[in-house]
């Protein structure tokens, strides 16, 4: 399971900056608060979270969803240490260090929250990358499970192969500090559900 160790330009409880890019900042908190409040009704028993960052989403998943098992993958070693400390306070949290794509995950989840930072681009096109990720996610979800990710901006939300897309709400929040240091106050609460092909009945 490959992990990486990076030298951050800035790393504290409010911001992560690496190579001149904002990996995550506390300005995302209001959006994530709205997102997990709106999706709390899903009440997932098992949750997979990809990308720990500042731990904002992990705290809110615990607070609003209260899963009995909450697996979190973090690829960067220093951030993983933050995750280990977080897990000590939450018995349902299981921390994993490394690339989720290279890990032998043998569970199926009710809810996946996918928010990794792309430290090492795959080298393949965005379309192929999205299709590859969607295929892996579908294999990790229960048939009626939900895949969720942040969506910044007021543009179209890309569909994922073999998933339906549900836009729960579009809203404005206090300005979020983006990777390139622009700001964004348009966001969407969105999730995807796997399309389960059922054999057609004979006529």
Automatic annotation (TrEMBL):
One of its GO terms (molecular function) is guanidinoacetate N-methyltransferase activity. Coiled coil: none annotated. InterPro entries: RMT2/GAMT_Mtase (IPR051038), SAM-dependent_MTases_sf (IPR029063). One of its GO terms (biological process) is creatine biosynthetic process. GO terms for cellular component: cytoplasm. CDD domains: AdoMet_MTases (cd02440). This is Uncharacterized protein. The lineage of its organism: Bacteria, Pseudomonadati, Pseudomonadota, Gammaproteobacteria, Aeromonadales.
């Amino acid at each position: 399971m490959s992990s990486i160790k990076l030298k951050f330009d800035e790393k504290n409880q409010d911001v992560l900056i690496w190579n001149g890019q904002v990996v995550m900042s506390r300005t995302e908190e209001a959006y994530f608060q709205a997102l997990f409040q709106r999706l709390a009704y899903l009440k997932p028993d098992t949750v997979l979270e990809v990308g720990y960052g500042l731990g904002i989403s992990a705290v809110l998943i615990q607070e609003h969803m209260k899963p009995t098992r909450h697996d979190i993958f973090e690829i960067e070693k220093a951030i993983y240490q933050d995750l280990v400390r977080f897990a000590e306070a939450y018995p349902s949290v299981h921390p994993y260090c490394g690339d989720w794509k290279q890990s032998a995950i043998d569970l199926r989840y009710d809810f996946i929250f996918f928010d990794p930072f792309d430290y090492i681009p795959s080298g393949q096109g965005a379309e192929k990358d999205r299709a590859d990720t969607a295929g892996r996610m579908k294999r990790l979800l229960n048939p009626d499970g939900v895949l969720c990710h942040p969506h910044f901006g007021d543009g179209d939300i890309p569909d994922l192969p073999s998933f339906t897309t549900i836009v729960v709400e579009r809203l404005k929040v206090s300005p979020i500090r983006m990777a390139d240091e622009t700001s964004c106050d348009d966001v969407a609460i969105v999730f995807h559900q796997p399309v389960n092909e059922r054999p057609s009945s004979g006529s």
